[in-house]
Amino acid sequence: MGTEPPDRVELLQGTLDMLILKTLLLGPAHGHEIAKHLQRTTENVLQVEHGSLYPALHRLERKEWVKSKWETPKDRNREFKYYRLTAAGKKQLLLEESRWKQLADAIARVMWPVKEG
Amino acid sequence: MRLLRIALHRLRSIFRSSRVDADLQRELELHFDQLVREYREEGMSDRDARSAASRSFGSLSVTEELCRDTRRVRLLDDLGKDLAYAWRLLGKSPGFTATAVFSLALGVGANTAIFGLVKQVILDLLPVTHPEQIVALAKSSILQTEPGNSFSHPFLRDLQAAPNQNFSGFLGSGSLGEIALQLESGAEPASAEFVSGNYFELLGVHPALGRLFTPNDDITAGAHPVVILSHPFWKRRFGADPSILNRTIRLNNQPFTVVGVSAAGFDGLDPGRSPDLRVPLNMVSTLVQFPGPPPLTNRGSRWIQIFARLKPGAAPPSAAQSLMPMLHRDHDEDPGRARRTAQWSKVLASERLHVTPAAQGNAGQRLAYERAIWVLSAIVAAVLLLACVNIAHLLLARSAARTHEFRIRLAIGAGRFRLVRQLLTESLLLGLLGGCAGLFVAYGLGRVLLTLAISDRNHSTLGMAPDAALLAFNFAVAFAAAIGFGLAPALQSSKAGLAPGLKGAHSFHANRFTGRKILTSLQVAISLVLLAGAGLFIGSLRNLGHIDVGFSTPHLLQVTLNPSGYTADRLPGFYREVVDQARTIPGVQSVAFGRQRLIAGRSWGSGIVVDGFTGSDDDRGPNRDAIGAGYFSTLGIPLIAGREFNAGDTATSPRVAIVNEAFARFYFGTATPLGRRIGPGGGKAEYVVVGVTRNAKYREMRETPVRFWYVPFDQLPEKGAFRALTVFVRTSSDPGTVAGSLRSVVARIDRSLPLFDIKTVDAQIEDNVRLERLLATLSIFFGIVAALLAGAGLFGVLWYSVSRRRHEIGIRLAVGARPAQIARALLAEAGAFIALGMVLGVTGALLLSSLIRHLLFGIEPGDPFVLASAAAAMGFIALLAMALPVSQAASVDPASVLRCD
Q1: How far is it, in rounded angstroms, from Cα B307 to Cα B356?
Q2: Kind and range of the H or E element at B188?
């Protein structure tokens, strides 16, 4: 298989879910758009295999945090499957955001302890 | 609500899976195409763009699988695919499928049929409320060590009257044979049961029509002419006509009113038998004549079976103990106690009561069949085992041919578990097909079983109705068998698939199939045991058939008449007229009458006093009969001394008697019995012996020689007590044709008299050996099936072994071995494990046959002739099975075999 490019970062499943939800907060998108967004915003640090988005998307759909629909965008003549955030999904996003912040704080305290005094 | 929606979503996924799949594919492909387009816009070539896109995207198929996983219907999906694949595969090899399904159907169906019997005769509980509380009362003593359950009416009344903390009630029932049912159409026999007033109430049975008895229906002797029909009888005889309610019918010429019909499915407390009518106990004297004092008040007349309902929490042993005071009171209140001998008092003091659970009804009929049914269960289980081993062999052979397919599947990522699951699904599908076919086998076999096992179809409760429990059992066995024969091949095949496969390589290591050979030895052993068992049963049956019954059986009809309501002096004239009229029927050679039916399981004894002989008090004495003129010549019993009764022996002439050899030897030793005086027990020895007959079988086929004495019917002191007599008709041709004429002859004399139990003595004897015939027939049938299965298994393994070793054989032939040597080597190898099987089989037969000792007659369990025949039969089948593979091995053409290298 060869070595992975050194920039690729392993993502936990829960984290990917959170990123997808956040992406969709900005508006409905289809799988390719989400992938491109993630890549662009992180300046290619986060290069997930595009395929791995789909099991996550389907799982999110099953949990009813996102909704999907086949739509034709105005500037194209093809149908794409667009995903959008639901109300429950928004709530889940806030929950995951606060969890992530807690996790990040905890790790930071270990890595860079604040000196007393 | 959300859960419901998720569940619906999953269900939708199952049913619209193809649409959902297409959807998914479209989505993924779109994304992939987008990527390709972008890379091409960057300037890559089409090929490079595609490979870059697939690096970015990942594997399409894996993504698809992962998405499908999230739907979590994978298991069902896979199962569906496995089944479809298995179905196609089975269709492609019809020979294999047919053989496997047929063998399985035979094994499963046989087990289901026997289970039907097990369930009905051994397992089923009575259809009453709380059957586990129902118990039977029994009594044992030093004279009667096997507890008997016959009690007197006064004793029942005592029990019912005294409150007892262990019991919530006692009921009594008694059967005294058949009575005459007189309708407009004529007279016919019906079976009747006398029951106490609380019978139905205590059991918790409901009426299907009208009402059932209450204790008010059983208070005064002869004052309750009411009758209840059983449901099967109502259906069979009156077509379930509700207008029968409150109609008056005549039983033994007495009017009775039909007050109700008992619930369907209730057949009484004797499993397997269903009396047609039930009347209150107090009506017994109206319908049946008892010798001696009236049966309702006579403590010495024990004809009632007592059952009771235990209170919850009561323990049977202490409950029995609590009834002992009642038993002692019964002894004390017997008016005949003054005449008791010291010996008899000792016997009475030793009497003990037993309370036994009767949730399945009275034990009587059951015990007789129980042992036989267990033996049959073991036999069919063995047959199923043999069939499963054969199917396992077939599957292994087939799987070996599919190794290539397995390797491919493992290579593209199927786990080993997945492969095993696929193979097990194939086996389960075979199990399903075998189970369905097995139902037909079970039905057919069940009908054969019933014909063999039951003599009285009308009054038997055994049937072959389809039943949820039977169906469940059938498929449970089929699937268990499927797992049994499928698991090992599945595991082994998946392992074989993993082994590195060299294309075209031939393994030179010893491909010995040891496991399979041992299995085949076991098959041979099991078949040998079954064949030996069958041989023993056939031997028993033959021995029974060769018993010298002491009289001439062909073309002998016996029929019982019961002119109840006739006065005692009318009887001799009536029977003489019947005999005279019957003699005029064309085809009749001779006619006679007597009291006892032949080989009918009944006997009559009244003790004996013999002039000049004092016997011990606890000897039961001889059995006896009262007969008319010409009895011995009609029956063909030879006289070895003295004379027959003749017209000169009347009510007023000197009393005479005839005895049999056993009687003579016991009471008179070597001296001649002629001229000696004998008499009934407790009476005067006023009968002079005028003749001696050869011994015969009187009560049943298997009895040891019984002492017997006869008196002329005319000379019986109390003829009125013996209205029911048996008429014997010897015909020159088929007795069946005479039966009809006999019926009209009797009807002409008295229209109200039915003919009871009109049956040939041959049929009666057949009935007596019904069980042995059942065992012999079924065991030889299954024995042969088993032997054929073992032979087929043997053939299969050998054939397969030869075909796998063709290359090896070819080389041997090429380097100079002769075909005969090859054949010999193969025979020796096969012979070794066949011999092992035979040795195991003989040992097994010797060990197991001692278990069936009680079912055999006149033959020892270890009979060497039977063992030798079974071994010879098995050996013959083994030789046949070996013939083709060995000749195949010998005729291998080395050139062609070595060429396909």
Answers
A1: 9
A2: strand B186-195
The count of other CB atoms within 10 Å of the CB of residue B339 is 9
Alpha-carbon distances of B48 from A8, A32, B34, B45, B702, rounded to whole Å: 21, 19, 14, 5, 97
Calpha distance B108→B474 (Å, rounded): 7
For chains A and B, CB pairs below 8 A equal 56
> In degrees to the nearest 10, what's the CA dihedral of B187, B190, B195, B197?
-50
Least confident of A3-17, B178-192, B507-521, B706-720: A3-17
Strand partners, B309: B134, B169
pLDDT at A13: 66
Nearest to B548 by CA among B664, B703, B732, B658: B703
Tell me phi and psi for residue A69, to 5 degrees: -160, 140
Tokens (6 digits) for B412 = 């593209």
The strand ranges marked E within B550-638 are: 556-561, 588-594, 608-610, 623-627
- The mean per-residue pLDDT over the stretch B523-536 comes to 93
Pairing of strands B687-693, B656-660: parallel
DSSP 8-state symbol, A114: P
| A6, pLDDT greater than 60 | no
Residue B174's H or E segment, with its range, is: strand B167-183
What confidence tens digit (pLDDT) does each residue in B318-368 have? Answer: 888 899 988 888 888 877 777 777 777 888 888 888 888 887 766 655 666
Q: Does B70 touch chain A (CB under 8 A)?
A: yes
Give the whole-number percent of chain B exceeding pLDDT 70: 93
Q: Cα separation of B648 and B642, whole Å?
A: 15
Q: How far apart are CA A84 and CA A75, in angstroms?
A: 19
Output the CA–CA distances (angstroms, integers) from residue B459 to B363, B455, B690, B768, B781, in the order listed: 17, 9, 43, 17, 28
> Using CA atoms, how far apart are residues B624 and B680, in angstroms rounded to an integer?
9
Max Cα-Cα span within chain A:
65
Residues of A in contact with B34 (CB under 8 A): 32
Please answer whether residues B431 and B482 qualify as being in contact, where contact means their C-beta atoms are separated by less than 8 angstroms: yes
Query: d(Cα B841, Cα A30) in Å, to the nearest integer?
Result: 74
Chain A contact for B85 (CB, 8 A cutoff): no
Cβ–Cβ contact A72 with B under 8 A:
no
Report the C-alpha gap between B867 and B535 in whole angstroms.
8
Query: In chain A, positions 16-45, which contact chain B (CB-CB < 8 Å)?
Result: 30-32, 35
Looking at residue B170, its pLDDT comes to: 93
Read off the tokens for B688: 């002079």
Q: Give the DSSP per-residue string, B768-830.
A: HTHHHHHHHHHHHHHHHHHHHHHHHHHHHHHHHHHHHTHHHHHHHHHTT--HHHHHHHHHHHH
Which pair of structure tokens corresponds to residue B197? Answer: 């007033």
Question: B255: helix, coil or strand?
Answer: strand
Contact by Cβ (8 Å): B71, B10: yes
For residue B878, give the amino acid letter.
Answer: A
Q: How far apart are CA B548 and CA B183, in angstroms?
A: 42
Torsion of CA B836, B837, B839, B842, to 10 degrees: 180
Q: How far apart are CA B351 and CA B139, in angstroms?
A: 7
Distance separating alpha carbons of residues B577 and B574, to the nearest angstrom:
5
Of residues A31, A47, A55, nearest to B31 (C-beta): A31
Count of C-beta atoms within a 10 Å radius of residue B816: 7
The whole-model pTM stands at 0.73
Helix boundaries (H) for B584-673: 631-635, 661-668
Closest partner residue to A62 (CB to CB) among B9, B26, B66 is B9
Supply B664's token pair. 């003579």
Contacts of B51 in chain A (CB under 8 A): none
Q: Which amino acid, residue B391?
A: I
CB B111 within 8 A of CB B381: yes
CA distances from B520 to B97, B169, B779, B833 (A): 21, 59, 21, 8
What is chain B's alpha carbon radius of gyration, rounded to the nearest angstrom?
Answer: 38
